[in-house]
Structure formats: structure tokens, C-alpha cells
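Quick illustration for those who missed Monday's session on complexes.
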Amino acid sequence: MNRLFFQPHQAGLSKVQAAEYTLRNINPDVLFEVHNYNITTVENFQHFMDRISNGGLEEGKPVDLVLSCVDNFEARMAINTACNELGQTWMESGVSENAVSGHIQLIIPGESACFACAPPLVVAANIDEKTLKREGVCAASLPTTMGVVAGILVQNVLKFLLNFGTVSFYLGYNAMQDFFPTMSMKPNPQCDDRNCRKQQEEYKKKVAALPKPEVVQEEEEIIHEDNEWGIELVSEVSEEELKNSSGPVPDLPEGITVAYTIPEKQEDSVAEVTVEDSGESLEDLMAKMKNM
Ligand SMILES: [Zn+2]
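Prediction with zinc ion bound:
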């Protein structure tokens, strides 16, 4: 976080304070509640749990989502423990120490693997560590990798909260090869966290109680066609334009297509018609115009 918004004039402020000031400046309409403490101590952990359960938009209601942007294993485990106990959905994010890979992970207690179900997943960076780090030198830091992972995290948050697109359970980022592996992982029935095991039982019951899904082909419903912000989706190319364009499509790998093609030139197009040569010189024409 400090690599993304910490500014020189904020020297001396904690990351938490600097984050609040920067974000408040960007959008003064957002309400912030800040707590600057270590969540791994017993006392703070209780308060942390309490704010997850009661710090929603409406006081006394749980929050919608917890985002983990911490830089150490203990803090991640503390978030994992709290969310398993409360059945709170959360998203984990991280950048590797060598700064050339990162990941985001959505954890729905009981439904997807928690942080204690399996060893933390990392994206193979396929790089010789010796070329990146030297003994006694501070760990590598790339604000760009941080920025990409932060962007992916927030994109997943929007899809999750606003219910559009495919929400990723795990999305990795390998900066060396621009490779974005995705996967999802079921929870481990032998997870060390007893609250994870409890949430798994409850999830199984919930799924069993669901009515059997009927196999009916339905037209996809358009979500948020009317919205209070007046946001509209406008296609930059109309269907008609796409049909009319008949230019050659280049050979492209699977999954990539062209936004539009350049129409074939037509014989009678305006550009093809040349002005008939009247034989008059430029001087003659200028004289004619003056007399008009
Ligand atoms: Zn677990």
C-alpha cells in the first residue's frame, strides 16, 4: 500500500493515516473508520472480530467483504481465523518477495479452501532468485506489480459485490511471462481450523437443502439495466457496422478477435473519382474567381 499512495508530504504518518488522507482527498463522500493496530494480538483480534461483525454500512450489521492486503503470514492467518469463525467472505491478495508475481484469492468459508486448508498458493515466477536479490539488499519492490495485483483485486471485488462476470476464486499473475493462471480449490475436510470444518458442514447442509435445479434454458437476464447512477453500456461498434465490414481478418491466436475490420474499398467510392482536367491554368482559375 505504501508503494501505491504514500506521498513525500506524508512522511511520518502511519500507512493507515496516509491511506485515509489520500482516499479522503480522492472521494470526500466516502465514510472511513480507521484502526491502526496489529490484528495478531489477542486484544486487538477481539476488536477486529467485533468490527467485522458490526461495522457494516448499517452499524450492528456485518461488513459485506473483507480485503486482505497485508504483508505477512501471521496477519493473513489472523484474518483467516476471524473470517472462518464468523463465516465472513474475504479476499486475500499478495505479491511475492521477488516482486515479479502476485495473486488474489476469494475465500468463502465452507465453500472454497481457506488459508489453513492448504499451503498458500504461489505463482511460479520461473526466475533465478540470484538475478533479482542480493545478500544484504532490501527485498525487491515493483510498484507496477503491486498496482496490477491491486487492480485485479478491486476488479474481482466489483464483480463479486455488483454481481457481474465471472468472479475468480484464485487468479495469479506472473509478471515475467504475462501469465494469469486461474483455479478454484475445495476446502480440506481435515483443515486444522475447526471453524473451517464447521463451515464446511454448514455449507453441505445448505447445498443439500437447495431445490434441485431445473434444466431450463433461460435467456440471460440483464443486470442493472436501470441503475440509480444512470450508467449505460454503449457499444462502440454497431451490429450493422460489423456486418458491413468485410475486410480480411488477420490470423489470431484463440481467444483474441478483432473489434472491427476495415471495409473493402468499393469501386465507386468518392475517393476514387478524380476531378476532370479542364486544361485551364491556376492563374486562369484565380482570375475567374476574382470576377465572380
Ligand atoms: Zn480450511
